[in-house]
Amino acid sequence: MADPEFWRRTEANFRKLQPPPPQPGEVQRDSHNGLCAMWHPDGWSTGDPWYLTNAAEPVREYFRWASESASVELGQPGGPSTLFYWLDLLRRDSPYYRPFGQGGQIPRVCDASADYCLKLETNAKAARLREATEPPIPLAMSRPAMGLPNLAGKPQATQFETCESFLASFPQAVRAAVEAEQRRAKAAFAAARQGASDRRDLKKHVTTYIMRVFLAFATAVCKLGLSGQFEIRNIEATCRQFLRLLSGEVHGEEVWRDRGALGKALMRNSKSFAEMLAGLENTPEWEKFRDEYGLVEEKLLADLDQQAKFEPPCKPGDNTTTDFPDLPETDRDLLAAAELDAVSMVEVGQGARDWLVSEADDLGVDLSGIGLSPGSVLLEAAGETDAQRRGRASDYLFVVAAVLHWKLLKPDVAAFDAKLTELWKWAYSRFQLNIELPNRVRRDWHAWALRERARLKSSAAADTIPRPQDAGRVAPKAAEIAPAQLHEATIPKSEGQGRRRGPKPDYETATQIAEIVAGVAPDGEWRAKLDDVCEALDKAEIPSPSKWRKKNKTCQTWSDQLERSLCVKAIEYRLEQARHPLKTNRETLS
Question: CA 142, CA 155: separation in Å to the nearest integer?
Fold first, then answer.
């Protein structure tokens, strides 16, 4: 039965996460809007369709918890995907949602969620009233399907979740493995069924059929966990959910085939079905799943132990001169210095990782997967924290190595492109990471090299090597930030010809702004964090456009500009300067 009290409590929980509005006389800022959810139909750089921004990490985490609780109340199995399920509901029904770029956004998503809970509370009250005046509907036929809930209270065509809808959210490799094993298991069951002597024998063959398919799914999910593509703490619950759905479908087709839809629904919620599910945990296939799941947990601990003892494979800088003997000695020294900087980037956050491991140990970690394990969340967070630091350090080292090798190989773009894979493997292996060079990164660097070749003149300008401290100790991303940072290295000196009258472009300031914007919004979605960008520019003492100060004496900083469209336009122009300095020079207005 729907619970209006639950939605009232959930509404209050969401409302607590929304920051208060500005006080009388206080300037309205983006921070007053609180958490914002951004949606892209093709997914963001992480592959997820949604990401949360404009709030601190604790607020985002509390919002995820509240969203998961609400989604479970609506019939979802739980896990990270429940956040996207809840946001999809808001995108479909909430007036807060609005288009943005190629996708959309939900500003003040905490308020939007709280208001939506009021709607669900009303629906729950209406459902309770109907249940009091109409004949009861069996539980299995009244729970919503895997998709969006039936908020109107009308019966849906699919009255319960199917294995097909459950698997739809998993990668193609998982679905293919399950479908292939299901075909084989079904063929073997059809042959065995011909020789079944009684109903007990038939149920034995059904059990074998179910557990073969279940093991294929469980093995695939464990592999996702080993590769870091699935939350380890959610593996067992997910596998149990799939086993329940699969058992219900197979029994409905093979054991309860003489029953109608209502009879099958009742059987799925019967005590005998629950006892049958418990008995499946005594099969060899379940034991094999437990063994594989144990390996996943052991690998997690082994990775954390390895990270705790992290040391570069060799002393940073010692072998750089022998790794790339073709580089000039001065460039080898620059690369060795960059490697030392990258190691410092990893060591800076070592204290945070050690604290998380210590806290997890104090809370308690149960590696058997049986019972409560309060410290498992912090344990996984420690691994993620260390891996992220090493990833940033590796990315920074790759950027420096790529720039130095372009100096050596230019204008041969093909040779430079072929060298990128070697440089990527070298940079990431220095920090014990085994990651292939993404095609997107290769394409971006190839395009960058083509643009650099097009700008080459007889006299080459001095190259500039980025350092961590130049970007607030945040390493640049190879695919997005590096090309913008390095354009200044190859800008030809102006000879004073062909330039229109007007203010001289300030490439140095444009580059500084590009670095600050990249530090605030590494994903490139800086417009959603405009207040944070303006505050960072003011903190770095980057002067605002002089036209603002002349027009309005009270507008002395970036944050003072109340017309946000002017801020966006000014930042866009300077980012374009950093990316294409020659183009903006030619287009300077007279």
Answer: 7
- pTM as predicted: 0.32
Domain ranges of the chain: 4-142, 163-295, 501-590
Q: Report the alpha-carbon distance of residue 413 to residue 162 in Å, rounded.
A: 52
507: left (phi over 0), alpha (psi -120 to 50) or beta: alpha
The CA-based angle 137-143-148, given to 5 degrees, is: 140
The three state secondary structure string of 30-96 is HHHHCCEEEECCCCCCCCCCEEEECCCHHHHHHHHHHHHHHHHHCCCCCCCHHHHHHHHHHHHHCCC
Instruction: Map residue 178 onto helix, strand or coil.
Output: helix
User: DSSP secondary-structure letter at 469?
Assistant: G
CB 55 within 8 A of CB 34: yes
Residue pLDDT, tens place only, 8-54: 999 999 999 998 888 887 777 777 889 999 998 888 877 888 989 88
Task: Give the Cα separation of 122 and 404 in Å (integer).
Answer: 64
> Is the N-terminal amide bond of 466 cis, ω within 30° of 0?
no
**Tokens, residue 422:** 């070697």
What's the burial of 482, exposed, middle or buried (CB within 10 Å: 0-12/13-18/19+)?
buried
Burial class (CB in 10 A: 0-12, 13-18, 19+), 10: buried
In three-state form (DSSP H/G/I as H, E/B as E, the rest C), the secondary structure along 33-46 is HCCEEEECCCCCCC
The DSSP result for 388-436, as a single string, is HHHHHHHHHHHHHHHHHHHHHHTT-HHHHHHHHHHHHHHHHHTTT----
